Amino acid sequence: MDREDLDRKLKENGEAMKETSHGSKSGRMKIAALALSMLIIGGAGGCYFGDFALPKKGGASSSYQLPQGTNKKMEDLPAVRNTAVVQAVKEVGPAIVGITTRVYDRDMFNRRVEVGQSVGSGVLFDKKGYIVTNNHVVAGSKDVNVSLSNGKTVQGKVVGTDPSTDLAVVKIDGSDDLPVASFGDSDALQVGETAIAIGNPLGLEFQGTVTVGVISALNRSLDDIDQRFRLIQTDAAINPGNSGGALVTADGKVVGINSAKIAKEGVEGMGFAIPINSAKGIIQQLISSGKVTRAYLGVYAADKDIAQRYGYDWDHDGGVLVMKVASRSPVSLTDIRPGDYILAIDGQSIDTVKGMRDILDTHKPGDRIKVTYEHNGRKVDTEVLLASAPESNQ
Fold first, then answer.
1. 287-324 pLDDT tens trace
2. For 240-295, what is each residue's pLDDT tens digit?
């Protein structure tokens, strides 16, 4: 049948359908029969309904079009779905990377052998290719594999680590095409505001996972002795592999580097992140020199909480107790001795070891500070020239 005959047949069928569309049961049966005859007439050529074409048998039609109204563009999401969280993830998500390191051990012959791989997360923050992550993600490694959000895997080099703050910086080849995240102001955070964690929990199979919660608390401490600064607490789920990923606000700014989670039976929703304001200075030092150089006083001290933790009675008002003075340290050049109490530095009262460390961290090697201490019940002021901390005290 040629095209002219087909058009005539379709026209006749259309007229018959009009006459019977509101008719009897037999009329409706005629419609079904006519429709069947149309399919038979169409044969292998297919049956056409506007712009949509059923594919030919044995092959796909090149004229297939999506049904009208279908739209996959994210920017066309309705406002109720295109939330602040969606916008923040679109902005920061591409800058989150996976970091894979090789794990080594010693065999029975004391040879270094690879026993597996460790996977963590990182945040691209500079188009030169700099990535901030956790120290424990890259510890012991010089070269790492970096998995980008576009699916590519590139070689990265560890440029600096700081075990004291659990921060590290990795570098890959930079380019103008690299997606980078913007740092926010962690000092402006409010308890209860939205918190978004982005990372690679449990490995690269779940790369770019997004979890949402709130800022649960600020200025949290997990270890008063060794912790360099206070942490952000969030109930956004943070699991192994999230380490080094980003904690993000609803306006798409990175305010923390996810670092630790309390993982105990019966404990849920307690994740922690390093405040980005505290991390910025560390990151800059790691980029410029590969390490962090801290001011060094040279005393081993205890405060009331530490003393009680180890079963010692504390009968002093304020200050920290000098337990030991390191040899050839700045304090060793003064009259401060074990048994004395350090009461203040530069006029700022001290009640905890953490407080003393916080003050020292605002100084650099070569600074002179005034130390007020108590010796045999008598207050004394002395000047101390701060030195660079030995590697073991960093």
1. 999 988 889 999 999 998 888 888 888 888 889 999 99
2. 888 899 999 999 999 999 987 776 667 778 899 999 999 999 999 999 999 888 89
User: Catalytic one among 118, 164, 166, 259?
Assistant: 166
243 is annotated as an active-site residue: yes
- Fold type of domain 186-289: Thrombin, subunit H (2.40.10)
- Residues 280, 284, 287, 292: is their CA dihedral positive or negative? negative
Domain range annotation of the chain: 3-53, 91-171, 186-289, 295-393
d(CA 223, CA 237): 21
pLDDT tens digits, one per residue of 47-69: 322 222 333 334 443 333 434 44
Fold of 91-171: Thrombin, subunit H (2.40.10)
Sign of the torsion angle spanned by Cα atoms 332, 337, 343, 347 = negative
Ramachandran region, residue 366 (left: φ > 0; alpha: ψ -120 to 50; beta: rest): left
Superfamily of domain 295-393: PDZ domain (2.30.42.10)
- Measure the CA angle with vertex 280, ends 278 and 281; round to 5°: 85
Letter for the amino acid at 51? D
User: Encoding tokens for residue 263?
Assistant: 């993982």
Give the active site residue among 186, 243, 259, 278.
243
**Catalytic residue (choose from 118, 121, 136, 340):** 136
